[in-house]
Design goal:
The complex is a heterodimer.
Chain A (H helix, E strand, L loop, with lengths): L9 H15 L6 H27 L4 E11 L2 E9 L1 H24 L5 H23 L3 H19 L6 H32 L12 H4 L5 H18 L8 H4 L5 H10 L4 H8 L1 H6 L1 H23 L4 H21 L3 H28 L17 H15 L5 H16 L1 H26 L7 H6 L5 H16 L15 H16 L7 H28 L9 H6 L4 H48 L6 H22 L2
Antiparallel strand pairs in A: 1-2
Chain B lengths: L2 H21 L3 H33 L6 H31 L13
Helix pairs in contact in B: 1-2, 2-3
Classes of the chains: A mainly alpha, B mainly alpha.
């Protein structure tokens, strides 16, 4: 039954068809039809993905060579899809969570006009298509196409309400930040081509990048992995390129859920997990990855504590959780990082969609200071949101606990300092999530009378995805129960083993002793529980309504990083641009252009005098030049 | 006879022709001067041909008299050219009632 794997091209094909139909016919189709096409195509992809997954689970993998994409000299880059354990897992996450978000969007966006509704779904489908391309590609170039595609789609979707200049600026910021990272990725690809002459991951004949990595020198491998990591920092919002992600909340809320929680930002994790062998060979880069990941996790967590916009809190928590994933990659816990990608996709999509439901009920009010006491009015949203909060805080047996503690355990084995800092971040996570929860759902309602009157639970199309995601967020972690609790229960690790086999051969990331690991878990869970109780008790009764002051203001203003970038990078660039415009452009460029014109004008005016119209002059000139020729011929050019 | 004399004569004729073309404004005289230059070259051709023939026959019985033949061609072409040139001059006179070449600088504008 290997032929199911030949259907792999159908997975990205369906969203592409949906994109074309909705994009071209957005003015003709009715809204229900648009949403059915948009969601249906992703559902179809999901079904195919499930079929593929069952096949891969039996140990079959497949590389589908569709056609020759670039063939030049000895370099050959096929347009090929690779279906193996890692990509099939990502396919399930992307299409599954993506489908739920599509269904949710159908209700959330119902106020939009027909063609904008169609535009929204066509972007959404294009986004899913690009992400699938990224994950399925069997070489770095195909991955790069998808990589750029998600960058473009994030730009389009963040700037979806294009009449608002601020939203457009956020879209541009996301695009430019991503481009900076993409440059690193691109250079890494060129480097690989220059050194190995191939960008294919692996081939049966052993001529892929992961087969030939031993031919790379130490400098090469560190350079390539660092450049790939630069690409990952852009796409996955790590220091120093993370500032686009919180601003990207300008897009519609389901978009935030799709792009900035479940799929796009995990591209960087996927890329590093895919290239795990290269990273295992470059311990220096791994340390950098771990350090940056940890720094981002802590830094974003501190900012999230003082944000008052419901989506901003979630955005910074995304940045922080991504930091944990990079910490996992950096300490060699590849399975843990992928596991966290999966659980994070569940609970963060759930939280974003829950936030969307709240915003929907509050008539586009996003400030949590004006909410409060929503628990009774929005029962389904409340319960599901609470599950999401518990999951992200890392309380067993919810999913976040298993993935986060796996990463932290590996971090402890690498260096206990990583663990302590990581636990501090996890405690902050529990704190700000429950600050958010308590301020929003507990206490008394603080909005206007009119908002109170209109408060209502969202329609079924929005609550059903919430319920499904809540179940996944609650139980999703059970596929990865650590050895220390139950032997041989880490199904995900067994499933992903072939992907990381080579890395494990070279250097197996160590886990601490079982009893140590359990102690570590107890510490982190206890800390999280204390934080939850503290935040719950404090913010249900007395939410922070005043503008923050002192150090809180520094956190609320995001450590002034945007301002810093503004002063250090944007202003000098603008100054340089102004200088170029007023001096270089006017004087040098215009001077050369006008100078050439003036020179031609002047010389032609002089040469024109030769044409006097007098035959005698012409003859004289002719004789003189003939004489000159004779002189040259006989006297000079002997 | 010395070849130099022919050369001097040809140079003299040619220079007279050039000076005539440069200095005079009458189209007919310019025309005649051009013929003069042409014939200076003809003269040289005949002279050199004769000289080389005398030297060449001693070594090669079939050494040609191509130079002298060539002169006839030039004469024929010159005759044709003269007829065209004179016709132009006649047309010029009909239009401007003059054969002054400087009068014809209207092409400039």
């Amino acid at each position: 039954m290997n032929n199911v794997l030949h259907l792999v091209w159908l997975v990205p094909f369906f969203p592409l068809v949906g994109f074309l139909i909705n994009g071209l016919l957005r003015k003709q189709l009715s809204k229900p039809l648009i949403s059915i096409i948009g969601s249906g195509m992703v559902l179809a992809s999901f079904i195919v993905s499930v079929l593929l997954f069952t096949e891969v689970k039996n140990g079959n993998t497949y590389v589908a060579n569709l056609f020759d994409f670039i063939s030049y000299g000895t370099l050959s880059i096929p347009f090929a899809f690779q279906i193996d354990q890692l990509s099939s897992l990502f396919l399930l996450i992307i299409t599954g969570v993506g489908f739920l978000i599509h269904v949710y969007s159908a209700a959330y966006m119902h106020e939009e006009r027909n063609e904008h509704y169609g535009r929204y779904f066509c972007y959404l489908n294009l986004f899913v298509f690009s992400m699938l391309l990224l994950v399925l590609g069997a070489n770095y170039v195909i991955m790069f196409i998808g990589w750029e595609g998600v960058g473009l789609c994030s730009y389009l979707l963040i700037g979806y309400w294009f009449k608002n200049t601020e939203y457009n600026n956020a879209a541009k910021k996301a695009f430019i930040m991503n481009r900076i990272g993409d440059l690193g990725f691109l250079i890494a690809i060129f480097w690989l081509i220059a050194k190995l002459g191939t960008v294919t991951y692996t081939t049966p004949e052993g001529s892929g990048v992961f087969d030939l990595f031993q031919k790379l020198t130490r400098t090469d491998i560190i350079g390539i992995t660092m450049l790939l990591f630069v690409g990952a920092t852009g796409k996955s919002a790590q220091i120093p390129l993370y500032t686009w992600l919180p601003d990207a909340m300008a897009g519609p809320t389901p978009v935030s859920a799709l792009i900035h929680a479940a799929t796009m930002v995990t591209a960087g994790i996927y890329m590093i997990a895919r290239s795990n062998i290269l990273y295992t060979m470059a311990p220096e880069t791994q340390s950098v990855v771990a350090a940056i990941g940890l720094a981002t996790a802590l830094f974003a967590a501190t900012i999230a504590i003082k944000q008052n916009d419901i989506k901003k809190v979630l955005a910074y928590s995304t940045v922080s959780q991504l930091g944990y994933m990079f910490l996992g990659l950096g300490v060699g816990a590849y399975t843990g990082a992928v596991f966290h990608v999966m659980t994070h996709a569940f609970f963060k999509a759930l939280l974003f969609l829950g936030a969307g439901s709240v915003i929907h009920a509050m008539h586009h009010e996003q400030d949590i200071r004006k909410m409060g006491g929503l628990a009774k009015k929005l029962p389904v949203t409340h319960i599901t949101f609470l599950i999401g909060c518990i999951a992200i805080a890392g309380i067993p047996p919810f999913s976040g606990f298993f993935s986060k503690d796996e990463i932290l355990a590996f971090a402890y084995a690498k260096d206990p300092m990583y663990y302590y800092l990581g636990v501090a971040g996890a405690a902050m996570t529990a704190f700000y999530m429950f600050r958010l929860y308590a301020t929003t759902f507990r206490g008394t309602f603080r909005g206007t009378e009119e908002q109170k009157h209109h408060l209502h639970e969202s329609p079924a199309a929005m609550t059903i995805p919430l319920i499904v995601l809540a179940i996944l967020a609650a139980l999703g972690g059970l596929i990865g129960i650590p050895e220390s609790i139950m032997p041989n229960a880490h199904k995900l690790e067994h499933f992903l083993e072939p992907i990381f086999a080579k890395s494990n051969e070279i250097k197996m990331a160590a886990l601490p002793e079982h009893h140590t690991e359990i102690n570590l878990m107890v510490i982190s869970v206890a800390l999280a529980l204390v934080m939850i109780i503290f935040a719950w008790a404090r913010y249900s009764k007395k939410p922070e309504l005043n503008e923050p002051a002192g150090f809180g203001k520094v956190l609320a203003d995001k450590w002034y990083i945007d301002e810093l970038y503004n002063v250090v990078i944007v202003r000098p660039l603008q100054w340089l641009a102004k200088f170029m415009n007023s001096f270089f452009e006017k004087k040098v460029v215009d001077g050369i252009v006008n100078g050439v014109g003036r020179l031609v004008n002047y010389t032609s005016r002089q040469v024109r005098l030769l044409q006097s119209g007098l035959v005698g002059n012409y003859v004289l000139l002719m004789v003189l030049s003939m004489l000159a020729l004779f002189i040259v011929k006989f006297f000079i050019q002997k | 006879m010395l070849i130099e004399r022919y050369i001097y004569l040809a140079i003299a004729l040619f220079c007279i022709g050039i000076v005539g073309v440069l200095a005079r404004r009458n189209a007919i005289i310019i025309f005649m001067c051009i013929e003069l230059m042409l014939n200076a070259v003809n003269l040289l051709l005949v002279a050199f041909s004769k000289m080389h023939y005398a030297a060449g026959v001693a070594k090669n019985a079939t050494a040609g008299i191509d130079g002298q033949l060539f002169v006839f061609f030039i004469m024929v072409v010159a005759a044709a050219e003269v007829s065209v040139g004179l016709a132009i001059i006649v047309m010029m006179y009909r239009n401007t009632h003059s054969v002054d070449v400087n009068f014809l600088n209207r092409l400039k504008h």
